[in-house]
Sequence to fold (458 residues):
Amino acid sequence: MNWQRFLSEVESFEGTCRGLRVSSEVTPQDLRRELASQFAFSDRMDSVEVIDRVESLLQRFNTHVTHPRYFGLFNPSVRPICVAADAMAALYNPQLATWSHAPAACELEQFTLHALAERIGLEREQLVCNFTSGGAEANLSATLVALAHQFPQSCEMGLGAVRPRIYLTSESHHSFVKIAKMTGMGLQSLQEVPVDSALKMDVRALERMVHQDRAAGLSPMMVVGTAGTTAAGIVDSLSSLANVCKQQQLWFHVDAAWGGSAGLSARLRHVLDGIAEADSVTWDAHKWLFVPMGAGMFFCRHREAVQRAFATQTSYMPSQVSSDADDPYQVTTQWSRRMIGLKVFMAVAELGWDKLASLIDHQAAMGDALRVKLVQAGWIIMNQSDLPVVCFTHPKIQCGERTTQQVLQAIYARGAVWISDVSLGGKDRVLRACITSYATESEDLDCLMGEVDAALVG
Ligand SMILES: *Cc1c(COP(=O)(O)O)cnc(C)c1O
Fold:
């Protein structure tokens, strides 16, 4: 196999990518035909041929989320060094279930997680942290640990008579819907708290609902504050929510899947004020830390609760080496564990804190520039956020002359940029553009402006 050629592709892909359509309009039928005709699996195939054909499929028939003109859903451009990291993780295939099988890998991951935690102001003492497949698994971990902490008997007895309540908003991430079902807590455990006009959780309404639930015999358990909502980059009033949680003895989880990275920038750090008071935090490296999927992170400052939630006894697993070196399978949802954190470690090591912060600031500056361009061209900004996600509409959309779906279809047909649409607070759909690539520059914003303006007239 010609590794040299693959390596040069990795190095030049950022440039190659610019020349590709951002999205593809392929149909399932087209792809199934293509696969069946290219891969019979009946004879051996040369490895270079396999690689070539797969690359061609991936280049032609995917949405290129690392494209500088992909203004989509928090999927970042990837530093080339992370490709080396993922290849190394595959090559050595370290098994991180136990510390004793992968001392270097486990310590390297903990080193990375603690360094990142410290940068966003989470206290080191008692902090338990681990990499997850993504934010959904980190949010699931938070829910399981909260359950073990608030209702210890549930570990033995199941939910039984306990009817836990999780408080969130219409703007919270919908992984909690799946979590309610997966944990057996049921959808009725989710209590949607109203949002104010800025789409933040209404703190007074939260207090009222907690009291009402207690009076009704339900068991308030956890409040989910979001730092950077998926739709509009809104940050809940974390300090106020932390106060309510303290008074009411509720678990305070902060879902900072995307927004957590703002904590690495001196300019943006303020958006996370209050996060240090969280009992647990979700932060995805694969959202805004320039690494490929999947790399979520879970942080929690209640070691005992984490152990209660996840620890188990077996005869076949190697025993723990030292009380200050957790075996990951004892403190996380996973058993066999891939070395998720190497790509995060290598991206941070290569860039250093200052360059990391400058890439994050650059994306925020591109978001600000986009807002200015949109307003100048007669568009209306619909969200207030310091983070680079811009929700916008136009009088022609508001009066029904054109729908956001028609605008998107015109844009996707041309394939020069990719944006999406979304409903904020349950209202009419608006367009949404997020600066997800550190390589996005002013001319890419001009291209986006040309595309939305053209799509508006049809
Ligand atoms: C993306 C996202 C999640 C889910 O994370 P995955 O990495 O996709 O599993 C959870 N919460 C928020 C706020 C998100 O933006």
Notes: The radius of gyration is 23 Å. The longest strand covers residues 219-226. Residues 228 and 280 are 16 Å apart (CA to CA).
